[in-house]
Amino acid sequence: MIFLKFAFKNLMRHSTRSLLALFGISTSVAVLFSILSFNKGFEKGLAKELERTGIHFMVVPSGCPHEVASLVLHGSIIPKFLDLSVMDKITAMEGIEFASPILVAQLANPQQDRLDLTYGIEMARLPQLKPHWVIEGRLPENDREVILGSEAAAHMGLKPGDALSYPNVGVSFQVSGILKKTGSQDDAFIYIPVKAAQTIFKKPSGATAIGVKVSDPAALTRITDSLSEKVPGIQIVTMSQVMNSISSLAASAKVLSLSIAIIAIMVSAVGVMNAMLMAVFERTQEIGMMRAVGASRLDIFRIVLKEGLLLTITGGIAGIMVSVAGNDLIELFVRKVMPYVPSENMVRFDAGIAAASMVFALLVGILSGLYPAWKASIINPIEAIKG
Amino acid sequence: MMIDLKGVEKTYRRGSEDVHALRGIDLSVAKGEFVSIIGPSGSGKTTLLQLLGCLDIPTRGSVMLNGQAVDHKKEAELVAIRRKMIGFVFQQFYLMPGLSVYDNVALPLFFNRGRARQRDHILSLIESVGLKARADHKPGQLSGGEMQRVAIARALVNNPGIILADEPTGNLDTENSDRIMDLLKTLHRDGLTVVMVTHNNVLAAQADRIVVLKDGTIRG
Q1: Of A169, A199, A232, which residue sits at a domain end?
Q2: What is the nearest CA distance from A50 to chain B, expressed in angstroms?
Q3: CA-CA distances (angstroms) from residue A357 to A40, A151, A203?
Q4: N or C: which end of chain B has fewer CB within 10 A?
Q5: pTM for the predicted model, two decimal places
Q6: In a domain? residue A65
Q7: Do B111 and A285 touch (CB under 8 A)?
Q8: B74-132 tens-digit pLDDT
Q9: What residue numbers bound the domain in which A96 lies?
Q10: Which positions in chain A touch B76 (Cβ < 8 Å)?
Q11: Which candidate from A3, A12, A385 shows the least CB-CB separation from B90?
């Protein structure tokens, strides 16, 4: 205990230097903690979101799997359409509970001089396809009613009951409901009945993708195998493949961000070591005195090591607190830069991750304190006292 | 004999040359004796004090403290002897700036884990050096003379047999020097063995015996 008191007093003697070292450590621990928390939240959110999607696999035109992944989860525009007959072939198969076409496209909006993103979807299947959606208003009941994503609605200044017309293609819709903010790309779309979309884009039974639910999930592999055999030019993406695809994307981001965090921590460890070395050199005489009045080499070693530990542990706690306090900002940033992000809050306080970050801070404290502590312990009391 | 040195030599290596700090010292100090060591700079005074204080071991010769040979002992054993038998007083006082007078006096006990920290013992030491009212003060609030008195109380806290004082009055004015000398003489009267290194012949003369060092040997 008294060593801890010494350590604290010694650190306070150079409060600016100690605070700077503390700042470095807390920043890097905050980065580490945020990255770990974020990754955990991301994986959890992803799994949850996929679980909630009420379909087993997607049928899409052959193409890039990443494109497919982002389409499956939040819609994106693929400049390819499925052949008209595909839908019939799927429904004709045994064991299919339902197949629901999705048609994502851009629609020119001459009044606002912009391109609207439209997402054609079977409105009757919406509760199954997007079970987590909360809609203010009601679901469309006919082909002339649409739902707006919250961002799209805010952008266009529309509310339930308002009209939305596209004179260039000769259609006019009425807004029946607004999708409550999901925090994902879902917010940016205009959801129109798939039939209306097929008419507008002149694809009478076309789709960018077809979501399929099977009646027996155990038969999934058999169904997808026979489907890809029978129908050429399609690609079948199961939900687990989507998950893997996004996970591997997230994993490479994780590796990159973790390496940055590790570098930040190493730099801050050098900062701690430097602060400690300076403190040791400045206290040479005092250390000599302590040796003379009965401190062993080990005592001195421990005093200096505890200083480093005190610094890094305090920095670690501060870093975790900063990170928890600022997690909304971090999340906001991540949502901006990541192509796909689960709609739930991801960065949450997790005791296990906090403990892991603290252990890391502790290790940094030990490693950066070892050399200064050793330097202090070999100070020759005779030379120190003489100055 | 409290201190018994026979044929003690100490050679340092400084760069490429050997410095013969002590060249064969024979010195005996009886229990309860007050000895002054004087001599010019570089005569080996401090080296001698360091050997007596178990901060170093001789290159050659034997050092006995209270009948126990301490030359050629390992660092850990030297630390133990230092804790048990030696109290150091330095010219620069070397108090811990962040700690109170009380904690500074108690400092050696923190390292000497075998010994319980007795509040009464520490307070009585502070009182004996005339600083009872200042036990909670920090060193920065004390005068030089007061700081050296704290250092003396610190040197006594382990109940050592030997007080080693290295120019204890070197940084003090006459009035404070006298007060420190009075304290050392009191300790000597109470039965402690006191060895004091000094430049000041007047102060040295107040001891039982003066040992003059020159070029690493004893002259008179």
Answers
A1: A232
A2: 60
A3: 14, 37, 54
A4: C
A5: 0.70
A6: no
A7: no
A8: 888 999 999 989 999 988 889 988 889 999 999 898 888 766 668 899 999 999 999 99
A9: 84-232
A10: 296
A11: A385
Total domain count for chain A?
Answer: 2
Residue B112 contacts A where some CB pair is shorter than 8 Å: yes
Q: Which residues of A touch B (CB under 8 A)?
A: 2-3, 6, 9-10, 12-13, 285-286, 288-297, 299, 381-382, 385-387
Residue A367 distance to chain B (closest CA, Å): 25
Residues A88 and A221 in one domain: yes
The CATH label, of 3.40.50.300, 2.10.110.10, 3.40.50.720, 3.50.50.60, for the domain at B33-57+78-218 is: 3.40.50.300
Are residues A205 and A177 part of one domain? yes
Residues A215 and A287 in one domain: no
Are A359 and A263 within one domain? yes
For residue range A48-71, what is the model confidence (pLDDT) as tens digits? 766 666 778 888 877 655 565 565
Structure tokens at A239: 């939900």
Tell me the nearest-neighbour CA distance from B111 into chain A, angstroms: 5
SS (H, E, C) A81-107: CCCCCHHHHHHHCCCEEEEEEEEEEEE
The token duo for A175 is 């807004």
End-to-end CA separation in angstroms for chain A: 30
Chain B residue numbers touching A15 (CB-CB < 8 A)? none
Domain boundaries, chain B: 33-57+78-218
B119-128 and B101-111 helices, crossing angle to 10°: 130
ipTM value: 0.88
Q: Which residues of B touch A294 (CB under 8 A)?
A: 79, 82-83, 108, 111-112, 158
How does residue A128 score in pLDDT terms, banded at 50, 70 and 90?
confident
- Within 13 Å, how many C-alpha atoms sit on residue A368's CB side? 31
Report which of A3, A2, A32, A1 is spatially closest to residue A315, judged by C-alpha positions: A32
Considering the domain architecture, whether residues A112 and A227 belong to the same structural domain is answered as yes
